[in-house]
């Protein structure tokens, strides 16, 4: 007896599916074909990847700014003064 696993999705011919959906929607009067499950999953993954990329870029920028500020504060007072860094002992 042979067991067959059905976990992997079977590839579907894209052109026939889209053509069939377009023909069906054209007869009803709809302007665009409904997306297939694969297209919706791909679109959702793209949105998630964009969100993760944006978040990681924001975190990296924040970390870089924080490290730059820490490096400037670690400089000797005379050097910071020459660079125009405000001194901490002046009252506003």
Overall shape: rod-shaped
Tally of separate helices: 3
| Measured distance between first and last alpha carbons | 85 Å
Largest sheet: none
Q: pLDDT below 50 for ≥5 consecutive residues: which ranges?
A: none
**H/E element sequence:** HHH
Radius of gyration: 29 Å
Helix content: 55-70%
What structural category do the secondary elements indicate? mainly alpha
How many extended strands?
0
The whole-number mean of residue pLDDT values reads 74
Strand content: under 5%
What does the model show?
- The structure is a single chain.
- The protein is mainly α and 92 residues long.
- 65% of the residues lie in helices and 0% in strands.
- It has a domain of 45 residues.
- The longest helix has 38 residues.
Summarize the structure.
By secondary structure, the chain is an all-alpha fold. It has helices at 14-28, 37-74, 77-83.
Write the layout of secondary structure elements.
Elements: H1 14-28, H2 37-74, H3 77-83
Key traits:
92 residues; mainly alpha; 3 helices; 0% strand; rod-shaped
């Amino acid at each position: 007896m042979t067991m067959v696993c059905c976990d992997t999705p079977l590839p579907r011919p894209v052109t026939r599916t889209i053509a069939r959906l377009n023909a069906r929607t054209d007869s009803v009067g709809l302007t665009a074909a409904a997306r297939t499950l694969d297209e919706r999953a791909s679109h959702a993954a793209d949105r998630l990847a964009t969100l993760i990329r944006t978040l990681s870029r924001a975190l990296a920028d924040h970390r870089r700014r924080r490290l730059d500020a820490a490096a400037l504060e670690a400089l000797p007072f005379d050097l910071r003064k020459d660079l125009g860094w405000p001194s901490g002992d002046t009252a506003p």
